Amino acid sequence: MSDVATLPPVHSAAPDDNARLPRKSPWRLLSRPFALLPASFLLLVLVCAVGAPWIAPHDPFTPAIRHRLEAPGATYWLGTDDLGRDMLSRLIFGARTALLASFESVGIGLAAGVSLGLLAGYVGGWLDRVAMRLADVMQSIPAVLLALALIGVLGKGLGNAMLAVGLIFAVSFLRITRAVVLAEREQLYVDAARVLGLRPAAIMLRQILPNVSGPLIVQASISLGTALLIEAMLSFLGVGADSTQVSWGSMLETARQFQSEQPLLPVVPGLAITLTVLSFNLLGDTLRDALLPGGASQTRTAVRLPAGTAATAAADADAPTPADTLLELRQLSVRAAVGGGEAELLSQVSLHLRRGEVLGLVGESGCGKSMTANAILGLLPRGAQIAGGSVRLGGTELVGLPEEALRHIRGRRIGMVFQDPNAALSPVHTIGTQLCDIVRAHSKLNHAQALARAVELLDLVGVPDPARRLQDYPHQFSGGMAQRVVIAGALACEPELLIADEPTTALDVTIQAQVLDLLADLRQRLGMSVLLITHDLGVVADLCDRVAVMYAGQIVETGSVQETLTAPRHPYTAALLDAMPRGRADARLSTIAGRVPPAWAWPHGCRFHPRCAHAVAACAQQPVALEDGVRCIRADELRNARTPIDIREVAA
Amino acid sequence: MRQLFLSRLLSVAPILFAVSLFTFLLTRMTATDPVVQILGPGASAADRAEYAHKLGLDRPLVEQFFRWLGDALRGDLGSSLYTALPVAPTLADGVSVTLTLAIAGMLLALLIGIPLGIWGAVRHGSWADRLLSTIVSLGLAVPSIWLALLLSLAFAVELQWFQVVGYTPFAQDPLEWARGLVLPAIALSVHTASVIARQMRSAMIDVLRSPYVHALRARGLPQRLIISRYAIRNAMVPVLSVMAIQMSVLVGASIAVERIFAIPALGTLLVDSVVRGDFPVLQGAVVVIATIVLAVNLATDIGYGLINPKVRAN
User: B44 vs chain A: nearest CA distance in angstroms?
Assistant: First the structure.
């Protein structure tokens, strides 16, 4: 996917406004009803805590033995406890203890953790080592146990209990702060600030705190719930809240003693604790979505879709395909749900591949090359689906084929090679297991036979000492060797078609040539057709017979490699060629201004026109059809204006 | 693998030393004098001095600490200030019961949490997954003491399927022992099962989106095989570290849950010693539990090595 290695450097052109997803703001969560529920419950708890003396209908402390263990009724809405005290009033006063305990411990944790984390991260050295060792020590003692120990030393009472809990929370706050400080310390702007003469303390506060506040707020919100659970447990054990305070935990202790007489006793305090903790947690989840990168809200954002996405005229002339065509894509369109709307990821992609032929599919990243490969295999990402068109492999229509039938085509008739070989192998399984599973998925071979086949395959792709290497894990292979293993996996069932998706991008330059040679050699020996996805026109010149150029989900030019690379007809192809380093060292590299727009913001008219040096007003008017292998209304005009390129310069 | 084990073992030693020093200093910082606690405020100064001498409290702090540490390494954690019984065997009894409960809770939590997490990940985004997420949120919020109360009320008091209180040692009657563990283990497991289910779900979702799962699909492997052989094992790696933390949480929670089922274990021992200021017991308990937690962490690291070959190699 990230095929940027040899792509033209991107100008910092002003990004399209409608190509940008809205900025994350904490206020947006107010617009979500699901976030409002826990927030309003917590507000209710807060109101109870602050206004307890005025809200509570009875005195929560004075015993009234006559009314002991009464069931809920008109006077006592939630009944009474063993001393005849009103449960509702005790519940309301309990909110005080709950919030006090939660905020005290999280406050202590934040104060201690953040300051220590700032110091440890910024000063580093022995201070950092001592702080981290201390964190290890604190984490090796269960929170309740440490609280009990501190209470044993400092005396009973909620304050001491929550001090202990706060110290334990400090560990996670310390780790978060330290990690952010360590990362930010390396950042240029901290150095810059140092040069400007700001004192270190000022640097820390001004630069680092804003960065660390998001993760801290999320962690604090979740810690509030944990604190309440621990407070309840300690008060239940009789070492937390004392007799001048009402705690939901000590109400549970009363319930334990008298629940056989009044089974309703445990219900109310337990519910209060559960709902409050649940609200803290849900609030934490919502804050995480809203404040942290990778949160779920990113995908929920509604994106305005331009009206013209589907308006590509169906005028693309489908050239008749040769008789020995193995793979044929006709008008293949893929759509995906994006935010509130839909985006067209592929628009009427047509291409064909003859038996024994190598077709190069080129374009910048984000143009839909990998999407095309995935659409052929029927492995589209979540939410994306084929909206029209056909994919035929040797006479079999693949679009609409049942999953089980498709599964037998994947791996058996179509082999796939991926960009990053180490990511394409399971890190915790041996190469032998992985190859055997591929072989056995499509054959009736037993384990021993499959192993023998795996050795054969590794030998075929040039992995030395294949029998021994079967027991090795992917991390024990170099990048080039790992890619050979991935190729072996693709060849396991002698496929007719090999799709290689940027097979050399992730490899060292010296290894790239070896892998390309291997692919060329295998194609000859096995007589496969190859669809080679790449952004490197040099690779295309070396390996391919024909080429298809993709831009923004469309094929913009197709033709033989010789013709297309020496006399490109589409300005995009020409721009890609101009951006390639070629033989002469003195030649100035040109770049393509701007970047490929995201799928929900394909421009109207010719999709390349905003970046095209030759664009005229007419280019933005109508969608352009693919005619005679090129999608450009000025193709004929421009052809005469361009000097032909020597293909030997392109081939590396 | 052996090297990994040894290096981990070596890194544990300084932490244990620090925990011992920390708890030792903590108990000595206290304002209450153990001698006054035992002899009462009316005791004569001479009696107090004699008793302090007998306990070794008149020695320099450093000497006291190293004497305690030396004894502790030989398995002698001193004697209770109240019962005068040696701390080590008393603790051993309590800790073994508490650990049994925690382990039972953990096993149950794994049994529930891992399949639920897998289930949610495979049906990611469906109504079933949303239902599961809601249940998991609830499970994270429910206090285990409340669950224990409700369980004992429903199944022990009302239905009388289980005994309400008490603990039968394994040696006495293995069947009764197992029956006695059921309700406390359920009460303990709900929170941990929720944590594990959530972790397993998100780890599985990440794995199912990973390039190698995509690659396995592109190779035509059946979905069942991809999940059972590849995804679960890869997803277990992050779940392991959660398990280590949860073991410590379970020991803490079991201290309170024991009380509800009147199981004589670490909880009773600890609360009693906290209330009475029985420092040798408290100190011993913290060190012993910390040792166990660190041992669990060590076991987790070894588990990492078993699951993840990369760790093994480093």
Answer: 25
CA nearest to A411 within chain B: B219
The DSSP bridge pattern shows strands A358-362 and A529-534 to be parallel
What residue in A sits closest to B29 (Cα-Cα)? A153
Long-range contacts, stretch B74-80, CB < 8 angstroms, 24+ apart: B77/B280, B77/B283, B77/B284, B77/B287, B77/B288, B78/B280, B78/B283, B78/B284, B79/B280, B80/B273, B80/B278, B80/B280, B80/B281
pTM of the model: 0.82
Task: Give the single-character DSSP code of A567.
Answer: S
Q: Which residues contact B201 (CB under 8 A, 6 or more apart)?
A: B116, B117, B118, B120, B121, B124, B129, B132, B133, B136
- Per the model's pLDDT, the better-predicted residue between A635 and A26 turns out to be A635
Q: Which of A142, A407, A492 sits opposite B289 (nearest CB)?
A: A142
- Which residue, chain included where needed, has tokens 């544990």? B12
Which H/E stretch holds residue A531? strand A529-534
C-beta atoms of A274 and B233 within 8 A: no
Angle of the A431-441 helix axis to the A479-491 helix axis, nearest 10: 20
How far is the alpha carbon of A288 from chain B, nearest alpha carbon, in Å?
15
CB contact under 8 A, A420 and B211: yes
Q: Kindly report the backbone phi and psi dihedral angles of residue A619, in degrees, each rounded to the nearest multiple of 5, phi listed first.
A: -65, -30
Domains of chain A: 95-291 (1.10.3720.10)
- The DSSP result for A1-45, as a single string, is ----TTSPPPP-PPPPGGGSPPPP-GGGGGG-HHHHHHHHHHHHH
| Contacting residues of B for A418, CB less than 8 Å apart | 211, 214-215, 218
Please give the residue of chain A at the shortest CA–CA distance from B309: A428
- Rounded CA gap, A571 and A615, in Å? 9
Chain segment A174-225, per-residue pLDDT in tens? 988 888 887 776 665 556 666 666 666 666 667 677 778 888 888 898 899 9
ipTM of this model? 0.86
B contacts of A142 (beta carbons < 8 Å): 248-249, 251-252, 289, 293
